[in-house]
Amino acid sequence: MRVITGSARGKRLLSPAGEGTRPTTDRVKEALFSVIQFRLEGRRVLDLFAGSGQLGIEALSRGAAEAVFADNDRRALRLARQNAEGCGFAESCRFVQCESIGFLRGCGEKFSLVFLDPPYKKAGDTGLSLLEQALELLPPLLSDDAIVCAESPSEQALPTVLGRLNAKSYRHGKTKLTIYS
Q1: Does the predicted TM-score (pTM) go above 0.70?
Q2: Measured distance CA(181)–CA(179) in Å, rounded
Q3: How confident is the model at residue 18 (pLDDT cuts 50, 70, 90)?
Q4: Residue ranges of the domains in the chain?
Q5: 36 vs 66, 94, 145, 165, CA distance in Å?
Q6: Tens-digit pLDDT profile for residues 91-101
């Protein structure tokens, strides 16, 4: 994994070992950022289910102002912190070890860019996927000009509207990117 462009262009990012974290592929990441590339400047980012932090770090490299990285895996979050420090973004970041749905329930902050890339097959206590639960809880945390980027299996149906945001989906093999704006 690497940072594609911006101030940290070409920096290598550490990736968690094992199968507990599934990093976004470079191909999917490039597709995602080609859609939102001109709308990143000054954004306040939430990288939920952050893993190694590569999506939030890419946004910072391209001009986002600050990022909150939230993940329940202590080791993955440690890597996200190391990756942010290695790219020179430590001062612009906050790292929160927590259960992501609980974070959304207790969060009173507003974000203008949100990345959602949860474990695909894991369901929460409501029976909904983690992604579906996160999408239900997000609207009060979004600024007026927010963008939400959700990664899911290509066959998963997601809402076409999120609060006042409309969805547009892009398929990349077995992965679907849904951008709400």
Answers
A1: yes
A2: 6
A3: low
A4: 26-180
A5: 17, 23, 13, 14
A6: 999 999 999 99
